[in-house]
Amino acid sequence: MKIKTEAGERHVLAVTVDNEAGILAKITGLFSARGYNIESLTVADISADHALSRITIVTSGPPAVIDQIIAQLDRLVPVHKVTDLTDQGAHVEREIALVKVAGTGDKRIEALRMADVFRAKVVDTTLSSFIFEITGTSDKVDRFIALMRECGLVEVGRTGVVAIGRGSEAL
Amino acid sequence: MTEMSGADMVVQALVDLGVDTVFGYPGGAVLPIYDALYKHPTIKHILVRHEQAATHAAEGYARSTGKPGVVLVTSGPGATNAVTGITDALLDSIPMVVLTGQVPTTLIGTDAFQECDTVGITRHCTKHNYLVMDPDRLGPIIHEAFHIATHGRPGPVVIDIPKNVQVATGTYTVPGIIEHKSYRPQVEPDADAIDAAIDLIAAAERPVFYTGGGVINAGPDASAALRQFVSLTGAPITSTLMGLGAFPADDPKWLGMLGMHGTFESNMAMNRADLIIAVGARFDDRVTGRLDAFAPEAKKIHIDIDRSSINKIVPVDLAVVGDAGRALDALIAAWQDKGLKARDYGEWWRRIDGWRATRCLDFPEAKEPQADIMPQRAVKALFDATRGRDPIITTEVGQHQMWAAQHFGFSAPNRWLTSGGLGTMGYGFPAAVGAQIAHPNRLVICIAGEASLQMNIQEMGTVSQYRLPVKIFILNNEWMGMVRQWQELTYESRYSNSYSDSLPDFVKLADAYGWTGLRIDTLGELEDGIRTMIETPGPVIVDCRVAKLANCFPMIPSGAAHTDMILQPNDIVGTMDDEAKALV
Ligand SMILES: Cc1ncc(C[n+]2csc(CCOP(=O)(O)OP(=O)(O)O)c2C)c(N)n1
Ligand SMILES: [Mg+2]
């Protein structure tokens, strides 16, 4: 007997929660306990009094699973609101990566040229290394990192996705 | 607003919340609270013999009264021992508040003596939990915890209180009416959804009500509304294990329980229905059987207070989110407003009567006085002997539980206490203790298996201490019967570790604890034995020896369709493929 898994589509969820101890464990634990995917998860407090945090979760699953994820998140006591940005339509997604490249000569020049094409900023340099800061969709960041692998990539840090709906409406 | 110690605040909050009973066990990290409870004039503390039993007793108290059960245990092993009952309450939606002691805040995270990460351990087996770091927060948190445990879909809430927070002083504040900032379950059903439901029900030709524990949780008025609405529509009704008692078992519209050990008529009716009206039930795998064969011809209406229950397992045509009682009231009002009358379901009832004619709960038995007692007969005799006494019945987990569900007829809610979702052996006896504490003058009987009972048998001491007249009726088949049954079905009767070897002499055990012990060996002794049990004051344990190899039918094997019921032992085939074996 083999165990089967089902393919799904990518969704970006914005979840506002009480900024309290254990909330992140509650959310990530819900995903692991119920076998949902997390592709990325970011969290930071967003209100002037530090009472609320916004968690952006990129997940994937068939429509019924996405619906369950939203319902399960929504019933957690400290969760205020869950919004499926993918479902809602037009939204902006951004991610920041810090990309360290080491090397000298042609590779170093090539890295700098490509960073320029991707509008990555140099935020630190030595004679044999750069740290680039790149902002964009996960796709763009992925592509930049893939190219940097050819140019002496030694280290990457990524924030994961933050996202927000287009237009004047708020969540 | 008064300045007092954290421990005094805990007790004050319990008093203010109307708590009369706490089930618990002391230890270093809760000594301040125990001291505050010392000789308390209104709060009765019931000292159990194991913390798991405190949680099940609290469940029994809650399930039989509708009020939240309250538990008090120490840190570390006290808290971990409580985890099974907390999880049981989560799966069966039982309102419960568990207060756990914790090491002082200054020692948290240092692997201190009897430290465990209680909020971490219970994070996913509670509805919500708290670690209280500041005594000023104790009042609001305890009040909020009771609010959360009892509102929306009920469940267990843990409050972990470090010892220095119990000793320190602060101001006790009582929040007003709790308007929780994020937890606002929808109680009132949407009016359009109710209208749409009425249209579906009025148009159906083969409707079935499928109800669950949510109706019990919604209170006795919800059960009354269910009876009224079912009688207005004239439709047949079945229920889950957790929902038994919401609808009277002697009503002609009652089809019996559905699911794995449900009746043939209820499962067939679900399979052939054109409309299923699910009320406070959650399409558990024990109920649905094989999903692609579940109620294939039916439109489905799902009324539930928990939106995450809707479309979780079975996609439905119409969702009504709200309290089961309010939804039923709204359905009754809408039905009457529209001047609707019960349809003539004549043809549907004729088909149902055909399924009923299989008499699926009948069982073979010898009738002479020396004969072995069939376990089903024992349950029926217990039911007959207690009619008119309005008993509260609890069960352990196994075949005896299913036989009790099949053969004991309930006609009112809050009288049937069983572990459905988690299926916890060791639940029934402590649950009976909790129910008896809540109802000192009622007849409370735990129908037990000899194996399950041993999981919390230490509570005999609790019963003796508080002079509780609990009756334990053991269907002693000397086997973990349900395990043996599955081994027969799935593993060609290789009985791996399912024999209850080295059983104690239960009658002598009764004696050791100052109970009355009885043994019933043959059919001829059954009725007298039961009568003696009922008429004997104080606690009684009955070791009722039953046919050892009886199996529980009907049965839908795991993962089979409702139409593939095994009705009789000789329908059994000896092996199963891996897909079937992989299912629980
Ligand atoms: C705590 C726990 N452990 C294991 C099981 C698995 N289990 C289900 S029924 C059963 C046997 C119960 O035997 P007994 O109490 O004698 O009841 P019977 O089936 O014989 O009526 C077992 C081991 C369980 N439900 N709960
Ligand atoms: Mg047994």
UniProtKB/TrEMBL annotation, chain A:
Establish whether keyword RNA-binding is in the entry: no
Q: What is its EC number?
A: 2.2.1.6
> Which CDD domains does the entry mention?
ACT_AHAS
Keyword Glycoprotein attributed: no
Q: Which domain of life is it from?
A: Bacteria
Q: Which reaction does it catalyse?
A: 2 pyruvate + H(+) = (2S)-2-acetolactate + CO2
Q: Can you name this protein?
A: Acetolactate synthase small subunit
- Supply the source organism for this entry: Sphingopyxis soli
Gene encoding this polypeptide? Answer: ilvN
TrEMBL record, chain B:
Thiamine pyrophosphate enzyme TPP-binding domain sequence ranges = 397-544
Q: How is the cofactor bound?
A: Binds 1 Mg(2+) ion per subunit. Binds 1 thiamine pyrophosphate per subunit.
Q: What is its EC number?
A: 2.2.1.6
Enzyme class (EC, first level): transferase
Q: Give the Pfam families listed for this entry.
A: TPP_enzyme_C, TPP_enzyme_M, TPP_enzyme_N
Enumerate the UniProt keywords alphabetically: Amino-acid biosynthesis, Branched-chain amino acid biosynthesis, Magnesium, Metal-binding, Thiamine pyrophosphate, Transferase
Names of required cofactors: Mg(2+); thiamine diphosphate
Catalytically driven reaction(s)? 2 pyruvate + H(+) = (2S)-2-acetolactate + CO2
Could you tell me which pathway this protein works in?
Amino-acid biosynthesis; L-isoleucine biosynthesis; L-isoleucine from 2-oxobutanoate: step 1/4; Amino-acid biosynthesis; L-valine biosynthesis; L-valine from pyruvate: step 1/4
The Thiamine pyrophosphate enzyme central domain sits at 194-331
Q: Which residues cross the membrane?
A: none
Domain Thiamine pyrophosphate enzyme N-terminal TPP-binding intervals = 4-120
Q: Which Gene3D superfamilies does the UniProt record give?
A: 3.40.50.970, TPP-binding domain (3.40.50.1220)
**Family per similarity comment:** Belongs to the TPP enzyme family.
Q: Which NCBIfam families match?
A: acolac_lg (TIGR00118)
Protein's UniProt name: Acetolactate synthase
